[in-house]
Design a protein that fits this description.
Radius of gyration: 25 Å
Distance between the termini: 97 Å
Order of helices and strands: HHHHHHHHHHHHH
Number of strands: 0
Strand content: under 5%
Oligomer: single chain
Helix content: 55-70%
Length: about 325
């Protein structure tokens, strides 16, 4: 009699409980699997780039502020191309131009980081060649630098063959090394003046360089497909990796910049730059307005804006 009074689950009720339990369990399981796979991938191919891991960090142990101007010019020239060389020497190499059949073609985060790297490399080599590698505006450019910036680094980043992107960029590296060799024996020019320092910093934070990634970050969420959010983050990271090598070398070799612009400005600028260079969320989120989820694109934009303002303060202090 008592057994008849006990409630019995219907088939529908049983399946409802099973589905709910599966739903509760599947998300942690899925996230755990994704986290594990991603950790394995990051152990094979780096996704965070702290400053101490850059080759330029060790180069600066050899050249100091009291070194000859020629050596400083060689370091800054090397700093421009360093990140591009490191990308090409990475585990999966230059992946922007990989064919559709290659698994690395689908690693879009690293591909977009590399697009940012070549963009910033082009901008800096252009400025260096047309401003720092000659005495005056009307002087002719160094032939090696001119060929490097106009022919080889300007080449498409997505060419697989005839010729390949990698072969063209390597030609560009050789021309940079040629300039550095000429500089070492007095056959090339490196000339860093106070107005060059100011012009260089304002060039970097201006419309030709930083406005490009910043525009990708501040565009409203409803104008950016969810699948494109991570592309913009990693493109910005690529730009900043190149700028970090160059700017940290510049400030290290010319400590008067820090003295004029204030150590706090430099510290905060480098801190924000480092935040972008090591930014690598497990999943890129797009929290909108008062959403409880993170807005990763907005966070990187804040780092970038803060960095730009601090570098602007440095530039203005040089001008005074």
């Amino acid at each position: 009699m008592l057994d008849k009074l006990k409630p019995k689950l219907t088939t529908f009720g049983k399946w409802t409980i099973i589905v709910l339990l599966a739903f509760i369990l599947i998300w942690p399981l899925t996230v755990g699997i994704y986290w594990g796979v991603y950790k394995v991938f990051t152990a094979i191919d780096a996704t965070r780039f702290p400053w101490h891991g850059s080759k330029i960090h060790s180069v600066l142990d050899q050249v100091k502020p009291d070194s000859a101007e020629v050596k400083k010019g060689m370091v800054l020239s090397t700093a421009i191309s360093n990140r591009l060389e490191e990308e090409m020497a990475s585990t999966f190499g230059w992946s922007v131009n990989d064919l559709m059949v290659s698994p690395t073609r689908w690693l879009d985060n690293r591909a977009n980081r590399q697009r940012g790297v070549i963009f910033a490399t082009r901008m800096l080599i252009n400025f260096f060649s047309t401003n720092l590698a000659k005495y005056g505006k009307v002087d002719a450019e160094n032939a090696a630098l001119k060929d490097a910036r106009e022919k080889y680094f300007a080449f498409s980043e997505a060419s697989w063959w005839f010729p390949s992107t990698e072969s063209q960029y390597r030609e560009g590296f050789e021309l940079l090394r040629k300039y550095e060799d000429e500089l070492a024996v007095g056959k090339a020019i490196y000339n860093m003046r106070s107005d060059d320092m100011y012009n260089m910093l304002t060039f970097i934070i201006g419309s030709q360089v930083l406005d490009q990634p910043l525009g990708l970050l501040v565009q409203t969420n409803d104008e950016v497909p969810y699948t494109k959010l991570d592309d913009r983050l990693y493109y910005t990271q690529g730009v900043m990796l190149v700028l970090r090598d160059f700017l940290r070398s510049f400030v290290e070799l010319y400590p008067e910049i820090k003295e004029k612009g204030g150590e706090e400005n430099v510290r905060i600028a480098f801190r924000d730059m480092e935040q972008i260079c090591t930014f690598d969320p497990l999943i890129v989120l797009r929290g909108d307005h008062d959403s409880i989820t993170a807005d990763h694109r907005g966070k990187v934009a804040r780092y970038l804006i803060s960095f730009r303002e601090r570098i602007n303060d440095l530039a203005q202090s040089i001008r005074r």
